[in-house]
Design brief:
Helices cover about 25% and strands about 30% of the residues. It is an alpha+beta fold. It has two domains: about 100 residues, Alpha-Beta Plaits, CATH 3.30.70; about 130 residues, Pseudouridine synthase, CATH 3.30.2350.10. The strands form three sheets. Strands 1, 2, 3, 4, 7, 10, 11, 12 and 13 form a nine-stranded mixed β-sheet that branches. A two-stranded antiparallel sheet has the order 5-6. Strand 8 and strand 9 form a beta hairpin. The chain is elongated.
Amino acid sequence: MSIVLLWVELAYFMDFFKQSFSADSLLEGQLLLIDKPLGWTSFQVVNKIRWHLKNETGIKKLKVGHAGTLDPLATGLLLICTGKKTKSIETFQNQAKEYTGTFFLGATTPSYDLETERDQNFPIDHISSDLIRKTAEKFTGEIEQYPPLFSALKKEGKRLYEYAREGLRPEIKPRQISISQFEIQKIKLPEIEFLVQCSKGTYIRSLAHDFGKTLQSGAHLTSLRRTKIGDYSLENAFHMKSVYDENSPKNISLKTN
């Protein structure tokens, strides 16, 4: 069997929408590892999966939830819990995370990523590979981090991104986070590729913004992929590619009830 054929077969069997689950197992509780597609909210992924599982098994009421949000512009590992397993969501949320991605140096955006347009440009001529690596070391360990204004965190009952869209800047308190590893994997200015292992509550967008400031420049996040949550790895996750196939009976892109 050729390598190409093996890859095709593996891709087929790792498609979530080609899996079978019994109603009893879903109600008792399943932990599903999903590779979240680009552009989807975590809630949309949960909605699609809930619809599919209910439709396939005939279950009328099924609890389904995720254990840690990924922004729409991020991809990668999303842990989905069903049935009684939803009681363990907080346990999964508290586990360490691993991400890979790309920072763009020399420019900032209000959202610290590509959700908003660039608002300022900065020089990068003074930035060397050595400076980049030494700066990364400063962000390892226990640090204080300010969450981005464009986030779903609440202040006085209102989402921070709602303040941002109104042009308001409420006071945001820093949070204590932990970064156990911050590895610079590739430098090709103005972009740098990285790997980060961090605690719950870490905003990689804020890390990009703070990293740029510490370099006496600016930076924003241009790509992000979550590769691990605790001992769970993206390598073992199901993908959702069949929802993009318009001719597939498994396409549920417009069916979320």
